[in-house]
Amino acid sequence: xxxxxxxxxxxxxxVAPAAGLSFSSLDAVSGTTAxxxxxxxxxxxxxxxxxxxxxxxxxxxxxxxxxxxxxxxxxxxxxxxxxxxxxxxxPLTTTTEFEVYVTANAGxxxxxxxxxxxxxxxxxxxxxxxxxxxxxxxxxxxxxNKGRVYRSINAGSSWAVATTGLASISRLAxxxxxxxxxxxxxxxxxxxxxxxxxxxxxxxxxxxxxxxPVLTGDLQAVPGAPLTYVASxxxxxxxxxxSALTTDGGSTWTDLETGQQRTAIGAADANTVxxxxxxxxxxxxxxxxxxxxxSQPTPSTLNWTWAxxxxxxxxxxxxxxxxxxxxxxxxxxxxxxxxxLGTTTLSSAGGYDIYLVKYNAQGVVxxxxxxxxVNNDFASAVVVxxxxxxxxxxxxxxxxxxxxxxxxxxxxxxDVFVVQYSATGTAQWLTLATGTGADFGNxxxxxxxxxxxxxxxxxxxxxxxxxxMLTSSGGxxxxxxxxxxxxxxxxxxxxxxxxxxxxxxxxxxxxxxxRVYLTGQFQDEAVFDNGFTTAAPTSSWLPTTRAAARRSGxxxxxASTPTAATASAPTRPATPTWRATSRAxxxxxxxxxxxxxxxxxxCSSHTPAPAHRSGRAPAAAPAPTRGIxxx
Length: 631
Known about the structure:
Layout: E1 2-3, E2 22-28, E3 34-40, E4 44-51, E5 59-61, E6 74-79, E7 85-91, E8 98-103, E9 111-112, E10 127-135, E11 139-144, E12 148-152, E13 160-163, E14 171-174, E15 180-185, E16 191-197, E17 205-206, E18 218-221, E19 229-233, E20 242-246, E21 254-258, E22 262-269, E23 272-277, E24 287-291, E25 317-323, E26 329-341, E27 344-359, E28 365-372, E29 378-385, E30 390-397, E31 400-403, E32 406-409, E33 415-421, E34 427-435, E35 440-446, E36 452-464, E37 468-483, E38 489-496, E39 502-508, E40 515-521, E41 525-532, E42 547-550, E43 555-558, E44 578-581, E45 628-629
Antiparallel strand pairs: 1-45, 2-3, 3-4, 4-5, 6-7, 7-8, 8-9, 10-11, 11-12, 12-13, 14-15, 15-16, 16-17, 18-19, 19-20, 20-21, 22-23, 23-24, 25-26, 26-27, 27-28, 28-31, 29-30, 30-33, 31-32, 33-34, 34-36, 35-36, 36-37, 37-38, 38-41, 39-40, 40-42, 41-44, 42-43
């Protein structure tokens, strides 16, 4: 069945060429285009069909896949985009490998994933119908009867596998590229185990005592709502009938409604949730139901649950704060002399030093770390790497600074550092950007693949990593560079003109969208796209504001908001280099904006706390008009 008007009316249809076969899965990418996985319930095998006219006609694809004679069994087809998708089946007797195909052209051709790109199945291991889920345009997971989860981060081209601690995987859902839930459910609907992951499925942790009604009939993530899942149940012998919700990654569940036998459940967003129900012969109730999730508390109704203080008689202040998926809080800042965080007292090696502290969700200090040297050293931003679930810090240091067992040696006045600590507080890697002038890391962001992006400023020449050289155009230039989740330099860019220009904030989109946004200040004129990149130069022009770069580091547009007069609209240049022009009067002396004091005076007892620069979340894009398909 299908609706194109939000469920007001529904139209029934059939995959006519597959007469006699049953649905294994159904996946739609629009109101007109969908894929159906069809199987013979007795013989197995499998056939893939596609419609582009709302189900009026269907065309078979992948005619040679999933041979029943070789034990083939098509479990599901799942599309990541309108053109990219995965078809997954059980291991063949001829190859003893899971049978997986990928397409990049909407199914016009399907390519078999070689056995070398698929971890070997265990003896007797197989998947389940519909037990495949995706996030974004590259992440795919499927579960097996041996309690393992296969994961691909490149749209199915290659796979890794992890054990979950469950005997079998019955339900599987991911609310982001890193956070997911899996259930093992008995035939009577009894929950045998619930686990979650915060690193994309590489490791799993059992939720030993979830509170509330954990329903086991179906499990789906709610798009756009982190750590939020809906579940349903129609089995009278299992937990309570109806539907339930968790907003904390599976620890706590609440009833949405009870008493109805809810079959499948799914959500387009928090305001649009669909569920199936058996039709009652007496009342006629049943069919397809539509609802919304309860409103979450707004900032005006939230109550503070805890607050923590730290400091000394000298100037100490917090620079940034972030959280991880489990609700732990990481805060970075700068202090002089000594500072007590919880029961841990840190001592500065000289001047200003850096502190990093981890609190649990209840505000109890888990650990605190100090970093720095005999001169002034500053932290400005912290972010949790979604792949490693570890905090990463950036800032500036003078001459020499110690981060746990790692030592940073500078080349000039101040230099940029990026350091990752483990979740238990061990410094794991350190990457530097050093030069002869004053260089600082001011902003930090991570994308869903764990790539890191640093915004800052530098003067003169700057070496990023081992041998990546940038040169400023005059005064200080804005800096933007990217690292892998292991700290290796991917690319770096400079932006600026003959006066002082500063990068203060950075944000990254989903890797598949491939955009990085830099904001900051400039004087007179700033030139973008001055740096090195590991990818071939590309260019495109998008009319909007601020500055954006591709994942390869090439600028795609830039625009300014001057302090006076009217900003000139960006125009397409003859070469892929963007200039932003300020029409504000040129100041008589350079103006600088810093997140922390560069050289605090000897007797200053207080330094004003810097403005928070993590940025606001972008406005939500209008939801596309899509058809809703129901099998």
